[in-house]
Amino acid sequence: MNPIEGHLPSRSPLHAILAPQSIAVIGASADPTKRGYKAMVGLIKGGYRGAIYPVNPKATMILGIKAWSSIAAIPDTPALALLCTPAVSVPGLIAECGRQGIKGAVVLASGFAETGPAGVLLEQAMMAQAQAHGVRIIGPNTSGMFNLHHAINLLALDNVKPGGIGIVSQSGNMLLALALEAQHNGQVGFSTYIGPGNQSDIGFNDYLRYLGEDENTRVATLYVEGFRDGRKFLDVAREVTAVKPVVVYKSGATEQGQQAASSHTGALAGSYQMSVDLLRQAGVSVVQYSDEILPVAEGLGLLQKAAGKRVAVIADGGGQATIAADRLAEAGLVLAELADSTRAKLREILFPQASTANPVDVAGSSDSHPSLLAMCMQAVAEDDNVDSLFLVGMFGGYGLRFDESLHADEMRGAEMMIELAQATQKPLVIYSLYAPIKPPALRRLHAAGLPIYASIEHAVRVLAALAERGAYLTQYQHTQNERTPNGRGERAHATNAAPRVLGQRLIDTAKQQQRDLLEFEAKALLLEHGIQVPTERVAVSADELTQIAAEFGQQPLAMKVVSKDILHKSDAGGVMLNLRGEAELRAAYHTIMGAAHAYNAQANIEGVLVTPMAEKGVEVIIGMLRDPIFGPVLMFGLGGIFVEVLEDVAFRALPMTRSDAVSMVAQIKAQKVLKGVRGAAAIDNNALVELLMRVAHIVEAYPAIKELDLNPVVLYPADHAQPYAIVDARIIVEREQ
Q: Which residue intervals define the domain CoA-binding in the entry (predicted)?
């Protein structure tokens, strides 16, 4: 099995309060309906070894433990205070905690910023006291926390057992659902749980760092509704995922405030897909469905990673083998091509009618000898073409289905699988029809740390997560090995990620004039940074078209209005295509001017831009938005007028590596379009990756660029005279305050 590798470089300050040596329960109670009672019961029943200090001015003893009239009366300095009191009392109690030297407080009460303006003021008052007295706040409006390896159970949850899954969840009910699922599963255990609540002080990134450092946590698992600081979370996630898996279920869309976005990029950036892409860029395993959270967390916690996507399926039923093959293909995994020597070994083990191709169908060979399945797994595990093994069928249930005498042979098979798991780095994932019944052989596998699933779909999602993590770690190590002396790795490749004279002047002028770059200005900035742009001319009057027509000859031309007040030129009738000769240019000029003035009578129109028509090719969009949650984000996808309809796009946070750019292109679903369809040649992929990197460098060079849209960019094959043509460019600039 795969061990956890590496260590984080620093130490979170949360260890003292998430694994406290002593706890004050403020608002402790003997009333079973109160949270102060449940917390006391959770600590007592759980066997907490530290000191417990119930605080209640109306009691001298609570559940057999001496109670204290106030925080100040406690003859010690607890490491953590649990506040089970109404919201209005919290600011004052936080101040008392601080004066007592208590460094952390869990605030259960609701009634803060989530309730409206009055709650916002109360939360601000609480934080003012916390900051003044050096108290860290978990919550408010939190479901609480537990640390089972330290016997701390402030939720008083029954039947939760210690294990390797750490959880941070914005939903208390989600934690309860996971706990009940783990109880039913019988294998999964938890290390630490935290409900972050309003995150008024401690946020997801802080909790993730703690779980990354916690020696009892093998996998960090998060249910996220919204990030307070997405950029910081991504930074921490990159560090943590280098040493242990991180699983995230992201509900809903990120809080973008992009409803009034002025570009295609802005319109798309608020999507759920953006959050998913950025999390995966940081090495996070993102699950799409809530019922995948625990299976994927368990699988990654136990098995950690796979070397690749090649899966060998061993099945005792053809139907389920086919289902497994379908699900594997849908998940982006591949059926391993078994070596001839492996198939020869399988033929020695199985009946002649068995299929030794992948999926391997034992065709009844195991009906009277179920340990043959383990023998097949051993043979396949030795194949260098195989990265993961997937056992599919009824293992564990042969003694129930056929004859009790088979239980002994199934146990022998289980022991062989355990020995194999200990001897190989290749993950062994098992789906069994009998998993819900938990027969002895499956219980033995569970006890040895092999994941057993009652769903082919869950098992395949685990296999996909293992492959994704293996690929990420390989790329991460590659990036680390290529680090330059400045320590920035591939990101330091940006030798041109610095402002240029013309570009800076254009940006400064636009800021001063409270406008965005005009199209020809945007293209001039691109050109200065080594991005090819088409030849174009600006005419401020119809008379200037005479010289422009002569310069371009009879090639087809496009004409566009130039105005800082008309951002979407097509909507204003400000674009005309396939123009030839002076007469057509003059007629188009007057048509565009009339349409633009009709669209916006107050618009400041500076003329028209004339440029040769781009040849047909593959249209894509490249864009950038400075997201309020995640910071600067680059987008790539299919372009043209359908970009917001198809939404076949990929996002990456900046700065990004060349590997990030390559993966952006590979992520697009319409790969056939990029690779050539119906006889068309493939686009110049290397030139596209270089273009993405140059755009990323421009964004880094000019922090005042708020949004950038290149749409469409027409891509051409490698043997074309030019690799791409930028048809339209839009750069939106931050306004001077």
A: 17-112
